[in-house]
Amino acid sequence: VLNFCANRNALFKLFSIHFFYRIRFFASFLALHTYFIMSTKEDVLHEKLSALVKEMKEAGTYKRERVITSSQSAQITVQESEDPVLNFCANNYLGLANHPELVAAAKETLDSHGFGLSSVRFICGTQDIHKKLEKAIAEFHKTEDTILFASCFDANGGVFEAILGPEDAVISDTLNHASIIDGVRLCKAKRFRYKHMDMEDLEEQLKAADAAEAKVKLVVTDGVFSMDGDVAPLKGVRELADKYGALVMIDECHATGFFGETGRGTPEYFGLEGKIDIITSTLGKALGGATGGYVTGRADVIEILRQKGRPYLFSNSVAPCVVGASLKVYEMLTASSERVQTLAENTALFRSRMKEAGFEVLGNDKHPIAPILLRDARVATEFADLMLKKGIYVIGFSFPVVPRGQARIRVQLSAAHSKEQINRAVDAFIEIGKQLGVIH
C-alpha cells in the first residue's frame, strides 16, 4: 500500500510538472504568435505610410512646417533665415494679430475672468463676456442672434446635423471648404452639388431637390473661396433660393472684417446685409488671428444649435482672453474702416503689378487673396523656397489642398504691409519667375 501511494504521488507530481510546462509552452507560443501577427500588421502599416510619404516627396506635395520665432506680423523671424522676412501668406488681413490694443485687452481679461473655464457652455462655461461678444457679432452682421464655437470648422461641422433631417436637402457648391463638406456628411439630409459658382446648375439642383420632395432646402456656399480668391455670386444665389423657397448659408471666414466697404463681408459687398439666413465665420483670421468661430443668423437656428449642436455641447468654451480681445476687435471695426481701405489699396497695387509682369493671378480683383497659378507642384515648392531666400515668406499649395495640376502660391495681402514691402515682394516674384521660366 505504501509503495502504491508513493508511486501514485510520484506519478501525480510528474504529471503536474508535465502539465505545467505544457501550459507555459502553450502560453509562450500564443504570446509569440500574437506578437508576430501584431508586428506584421505594424510593419504593413509602416510600409504603407512610408510609401505615401515617399510618393508625396517625389511629387513635390510634401508639406514642411516652417517655424516662426516672433509674433505674427507683416515682418517676422523664422528659423530658416537669419534675417527677418516679409510674410505674405497669413490670414492676418487687418494686421491685428499682434496689435497692442488686442494684446492689452487679452491681458486685462486674463486678470478679470481667468485663463480658462474647464467646462462647456451649458454646464458652467458661460461668462458675461461670452454673451456680450455674441451680441456684438450679431449687431455687426445685422442678424438676430449668434452662438460661439471653438472654431469655424466646428461651427460648420455642427450646423447641418442639428437643423436638417432625412426629409430635407443641402445644395452645396462643389468647391466649398472641407469643413462644410464634412458637416454635410454628418447630417442625413439629401445631398445635391452644383458646379462652382454656376447659377444655371444651382437652379437645376434646386429643381432636383423639389423633385425629391425635400421639405427644407438649404443652399450653402463659401462667401469667398480661400484657394482661388473667388467671390460667390451671392445675389444670384439669393434670388434662386427665394424662387425655390430655399434658405441660404455662407461661410465668411475669408471676408469678415475686411471685405466690403466697411468690412462686413460678402453680404455687404452685394448689398444683402440682413438677408442671409445663416452665416458662419471665424475669430482666427482677420479678427485677431487667434481661435474661435461662430454661427450668426436666424434666432430659431441659433436656439436649436444651443440645444443640439454637438461641437458646441461637447467642446470647452472659447477662452476668456480670446473673447476679451475679440470684443476689442469689433469695437475697432465699428469705430473705423481705415484698415479696410488700406488693405484695398494694397490689394490693388499687388494685383496690378503682378498681372503687368505676366503672372496668372486668380480670384476677384478686389480681394486680398491673390493666388499665383504655377500648375506644377514641384515648381510651386521650389518657387516658395527661393522666395524665402529673398526674404519673402510664401507657401506653395498643391494637391490635395488644390486640384492636381493647379499648384500655386497663394499670396495674402495685409493692411499692415507698407507699399515698399509690397513692391519688394513683387520684384522678388519677377526675378524668380524669370529664373524658373514662369514668365519672360
Any overview of this molecule?
The protein is an alpha/beta fold. It folds into 2 domains: 75-95 and 337-436, Aspartate Aminotransferase, domain 1; 103-335, Aspartate Aminotransferase, domain 2, CATH 3.40.640.10. Helices cover 50% and strands 14% of the residues. It has 15 helices and 15 strands. The chain has helices spanning 2-59, 100-113, 121-124, 128-141, 152-163, 178-186, 199-211, 234-243, 266-269, 299-308, 310-313, 320-335, 338-357, 377-389, 419-435; strands at residues 75-76, 85-87, 145-149, 169-173, 190-194, 217-222, 224-225, 230-231, 247-251, 278-282, 293-297, 369-375, 392-393, 396-397, 407-412. The strands form 4 sheets. A 7-stranded mixed beta sheet has the order 3-11-10-9-6-4-5, with helices on both faces. A 3-stranded mixed beta sheet has the order 1-2-13. Helix 6 links the parallel strand 4 (169-173) and strand 5 (190-194). The radius of gyration is 29 Å and the shape is globular. The model has no long low-confidence stretch (mean pLDDT 92). Pfam families: Aminotran_1_2 (PF00155). Its cofactor is pyridoxal 5'-phosphate. GO terms for molecular function: glycine C-acetyltransferase activity; pyridoxal phosphate binding. This is 2-amino-3-ketobutyrate coenzyme A ligase, mitochondrial. It catalyses: glycine + acetyl-CoA = (2S)-2-amino-3-oxobutanoate + CoA.
